[in-house]
Amino acid sequence: MAWKKFLFLSTALWAGLTQAQPAKLAIVIDDVGYHQKEDAAVFAMPRQISVAIIPAAPYARQRNQQAREQGRDVLIHMPMQPKSKMKIEGGGLTLGMSQDEVSRRVQTAKSIVSAAIGMNNHMGSAATSDRALMTYLMQELAEQHLFFLDSRTIGSSVAGKVAKEQGVKSLDRHIFLDDSDALADVQRQYQLAIQHARRHGTTIVIGHPRKNTIAVLQAGLANLPADIQLVSMGSLWRDEKVIPPKPFILLFSDLPAPTNVAPYTPVPMLRGVPE
User: Fold this and answer.
1) Which of 40-49, 188-197, 228-237, 246-255 has the weakest average pLDDT?
2) Was domain 23-237 assigned CATH 3.20.20.370?
3) How far apart are CA 8 and CA 12, in angstroms?
4) How many CB atoms are located within 10 Å of the residue 275 CB?
5) Contact 177, 190 (CB under 8 A)
6) Where in the sequence is the signal peptide annotated (predicted)?
7) Smallest Cα–Cα separation from 25: which of 45, 54, 40, 41?
């Protein structure tokens, strides 16, 4: 029957649409908690954008509370020792620390950034390459039920491997938006993130609360392609599936209309009405 053929085609169409999952774009803004104007612009963006707060920042507690009220995902942006001689903020992690000291510093950071669901590294090229330090860190993150986002500040990072060994969910940064703060460079990196998402299905982007970064994100997210969905870091951590909007499909029955069942009285412009 014609209606059965229509139903089959509609079902096939729906199956095809459900299989075409949008690519996931997750954005984390690091270094939150230092500058009120730039932070305000970040917090005015969609709540799917996650914020990474440095515990030692002057407005860390305020930003933590603001994010909690917005339902925005929060990460502890933990200062970690770089290979350079650059000084890190207080409360950070350095090579040679004991398990007790690492645990104490993570717990202190969590008491400040209490809404955190995960942690990522601020700098940390030396720290994330050190197996002993990463083992101590991941053991404490397991205790705190936090995941780890490796900012990938160095290719020799062992953070992800050690996290897996310790039963901690670990994710990797794919694209830095603003290694260069030039507007054209940030725009180029944003487009690279979109392309990466299409090729791989998921892209994690890290940026900072800077004028050009905010401008690029505001423009880009206002015109987000239909095949890209902005998601929070928490949704990636929980491995939530992106469900595209259901299309409207009208299915017809092969039963005759009531106005076409005899006996009926013809009515102009109608097929008829029952007597």
Assistant:
1) 246-255
2) yes
3) 6
4) 8
5) yes
6) 1-20
7) 45
Going by their DSSP bridges, the two strands 228-231 and 118-123 should be labelled as unpaired
Task: Judge residue 64's burial from the number of C-beta atoms within 10 Å of its C-beta, 0-12 exposed, 13-18 middle, 19 or more buried.
Answer: buried
Instruction: List 80's β-bridge partners, or say none.
Output: 93, 123
Q: Which residues pair with 274 in a beta bridge?
A: 264
Task: State how beta strands 175-176 and 170-172 pair.
Answer: unpaired
In whole angstroms, give the CA distance from residue 152 to residue 147: 15
Domain ranges for the chain: 23-237
Q: Is 216 exposed, middle or buried (0-12, 13-18, 19+ CB in 10 A)?
A: buried
Angle between helices 211-222 and 183-200 (to 10 degrees): 40
Distance between first and last Cα of the chain: 29
* Amino acid 183: pLDDT: 98
Handedness of CA 98, 75, 218, 45 (dihedral sign): negative
